[in-house]
Design a protein that fits this description.
Order of helices and strands: HHHHHHH
Shape: elongated
Distance between the termini: 62 Å
Largest sheet: none
Number of helices: 7
Structural class: mainly alpha
Length: 246
Amino acid sequence: MRSTPGSQGRRSLGVGLAILLLAPLWAVSPAESAYDAGQRRCRGAIVKAGSAYARAALRVASQCHRDRLADRLDPQTDCSAVEAVDSRGLLARERLRAQRLLQTACDGDSVSPARVGHLSCAAPCDVEVPAVDGIEDVAACALCGARREAAALAALGGGAPPTGLSQAGRRCHETVLRSTSAELSRILKARASCQRKHERAGEVDARGRSERALVRDARARRAAAKGEDAEDARDRLRGEHPLGQA
């Protein structure tokens, strides 16, 4: 049975979303230890810059699809080659904006690629960024991954339908493009939220103590107020007390 442009688009969109969900290329790794305020600010800026670039890349690809179907572009144009089809220079502006953002947000004695959890650039972007020695390398890696994700989603969601579609076919294709953009935005927001939650779990105060340690000490103080030795209470809450495993 011959599939319609709409069914092809929906199926391709599902595959594209699976790629985005299962293979994040540019987002920094989830926090495994505590980060101070400056490091969290830098990590948030990396995600913000990558997200903005991914949205821009998908906008470029989507506009390319519209122009191609309207016979304003060569029918053989590859709209997933987002940098090549960016006739308005949107990605160049977003790249410059991202570099400025990271220069400002990642400026501090406690901030370095390793300290914000960005030790290396994942494949295939390791070809473009073989080593992560500075924040400029982090920016290059983030934007490379964002560009590749958006391009992959544009190729799978937008496809390469023949030119000369009927009006109904073009409306269907436009619906798929809009849905692709909306889903990408939801995924990017979910990623940023997930990272913030991981960071809160290991958040530190001015003394360098983790949130969990602060909660444990607060419970120990409450136990001490009831007559229990504070040190025994802390040990019990750690699960180390021989008579009171918690």
